[in-house]
Amino acid sequence: MSKHAESKKRPLSRDDLYRLKLVGDANISPDGSRVAYVVRSLDKDKDEYVGNIHVWQDGQTRQFTSGGKDSTPRWSPDGSQLAFLSGRAEKNQLFVIPVGGGEAVQMTTLDLGAGEPVWAPDSRRIAFAAQVEFPPRDEEQKKKDERRAPTKVIDRAIYKFDGAGFTFGRRSHLFRLDLDTREVTQLTDGDFNERFPAWTPDGRQIAFAANRNPNWDTERGSDIWIIAAEGGDPRQMTTQSGAWFAPTFSPDGSRIAYLGWPLVDDEEPDYWNQVWVADRSLKKCANILDGTDLNEGHSVGTDWAGGGPDSSLRWTAAGLHFMVSERASSNVLRWTGKKLEPVTRGQHDVSSYSVADDGTVAYVSSDETRPAEVFISGKGKPRQISAENAALLEQLQLQAPDQIVLRGADAEEIEGWVLKPVGFASGQKYPVLLYIHGGPATCYGHTFFHELQWWAAQGYGVAYSNPHGGSSYGRGFQNSIRHDWGNRDYRDIMSFTDEVVNLPWVDRSRLAAAGGSYGGYMVNWLAGHTDRFAAFCAQRSICNMVSQGGTSDFAAFRQDRSGGTPEGNPEKLWDQSPLKFASKAKTPTLILHQELDHRCPIEQGEQWFSALKRLGVPVRFIRFPEESHGMSRGGKPSRRFDRLGYMRDWFARYV
Asked: 483 catalytic, yes or no?
């Protein structure tokens, strides 16, 4: 690009939140001739997300639905119909539309909505999981509850979930839709939750994942089950104790693949997804990732994701496909039965994909300066088939990162990046904002991140890294901080900071740090362990591991990562709590927290605010109503916009 063309470009703005498109969930037709995908945008006037399904065919794309709340397109096996979910009627319901034209027909009217559609091989039936009331209320009780807020009677340890609210009166069960009659049949029931339906190739049975242990709310794990397509008693397929889920069958039906990891006696689960392949009896089972240091799934963090299927497993005649995140990139792999081979390659973020019968893959990919678009990879070089953001990108000056590689804790290699500020001029000094990712089992990587680019447009250098505990660098690296937060991860972050401040253009007196969730925890940890920063922004953070161990939606299993419970060994949790070290905090801190955050409940922000106030530390507390943990990447558009403004003003004051 010429310097003249570059000079005509402008910095990214907050208002570009409303101009950028979110592209996701690319679903290719069985014959490979069409690709359906979802395009969403943040509507400023309506203050909501608007999403429709687009279809690519014969080199052209067109908008295929106009419901405004449409998602999850899935082609029928014969390619004649497209099923999708739509919130046109408030709750997501299942719709089907003929590919040749015509109106979309609503197929479900479930009180709590429907889940991702899974077609039967005959293209006449669809399986899906959906929430139902449990226990069900009679009409008299429903009328009472309409007149006043119902009293919450809770018996299970798992009774709320971030983003979904209180779930104690709901269970997830399997349903079957018969298109010929439009009849919806509930296949399973009881005090259990079932997900991930998968048809056998003959269409006679449906496999699924569930923990049907009576103590499912306090004992980790799940199994693969199978049930007749007409209903009846399900049969348990897996026998080894583990967290098994997302079954899928080989095209000939002789084998089954699924995801998960074993639960070994006296050993905590480590959330390391492996891909297992077995015969239908499950007597012969093998982990096809054995001998590698790979973890199935997508774990590269971003605030600009378009969504995708619940599971990455896809089995066609070409092989068993799945996703992995490795060294800050996500790609698709294929197992041919003899070896693993890459389907997509490169330093980018493949966030969803699908496979045609002939092995052609449609996928959604992004990188640091390119929001996600749809690509096709078959024989020959991959080609881009959507350009939803092309016109806007022609106007924007986006920054490509410079890589920093250093030795962190235990002399292990740590990877990080720095964005220079827009308008960078050699010889000048600039403030730097250090970002810390959440998780901790996620990572920064080769993907588009609106917020990071926006800070560069504000004149800041932006530094971000993947310290110990993050994903995509192997099992040992990811598990290295289990039960030991604030040790290796803190040392890595400070070593990375040392590298950044030694860059000739960095003004070391104007450093700030920000992070959310686990990243917010680490910001709070920094506050009690260093005075090198001029300002902090702690978002949806943790400050007290003891109290969070009883208030989080994951409280029943909190010891898996923190190594203790409030009633069992509070000392271990307190030693990992930033609040223990708050008396040493001096740095001005902005606290952002959502009032409906069930992952890191707002009592964490309240405690941190009260402590800093008592200590005389400059602090401001911003509470966002109606929002859950993931507001920065999926909250109400106006609140995402306002959030950036609060941060900008705070750092302008102190940095």
From this structure: no
Listed in sequence order, the residues at least 6 apart from 137 whose beta carbon sits closer than 8 Å to its beta carbon are 145
Please give the Cα distance from 547 to 477 (Å, whole number).
27
Could you say which of 298, 352, 629, 632 is catalytic? 629
The pair of three-digit structure tokens given for residue 78, joined into one six-digit string: 């014969």
Condensed to tens digits (0 to 9), the pLDDT of residues 565-621 reads 999 999 999 999 999 999 999 999 999 999 999 999 999 999 999 999 999 999 999
Q: Percent of the chain beyond pLDDT 90?
A: 90
Of these residues, 517, 541, 562, 628, which one is catalytic? 517
Is the pLDDT at 145 greater than 90? The verdict is no
At 378-416, the pLDDT tens digits run 877 899 999 999 999 999 999 999 999 999 999 999 999
- Cβ partners under 8 Å of residue 447, min gap 6: 300, 301, 302, 304, 330, 348, 349, 351, 366, 367, 368
471 is known as an active-site residue: no
Nearest to 274 by CA among 296, 253, 303, 243: 296
For 399-654, the fitting CATH number among 3.40.50.1820, 3.90.1010.10, 2.60.40.1120, 3.30.70.360 is 3.40.50.1820
Cis ω for the linkage preceding 234 (within 30 of 0): no
* DSSP SS3 for 556: helix
